[in-house]
Design a protein that fits this description.
Length: 88
């Protein structure tokens, strides 16, 4: 079974894609971090607007999506800026 890495905005339970490696998922987070909050795909998903934030984490799944391991929050984005966090 192949391992799959998923980026999830944990606060809003949104998946942002599936990747074949942890590094590929991190590359996507690095790309997202260059796009200002408030612009697609970093639009605030909730009605709180500037008070809203996204907290991206990387989840590692087995090929059947039956077992998973959360890597913890990696990136937080809000109107206040970008904050990189250390994944578990």
């Amino acid at each position: 079974m192949a391992v799959v890495f998923v980026i999830e905005d944990e606060i809003h339970a949104e998946w942002l894609g599936k990747f074949e490696s942890f590094e590929a998922a991190m590359d996507e987070l690095r790309r997202l971090a260059t796009i200002p909050f408030g612009q697609h795909p970093n639009l605030p998903p909730c009605m709180a607007g500037d008070a809203c934030k996204r907290e991206y984490q990387i989840i590692e799944f087995d090929g059947c999506f039956s077992n998973y391991e959360r890597r913890g929050p990696v990136l937080t984005m809000s109107a206040q800026g970008v904050q990189w966090l250390t994944p578990d």
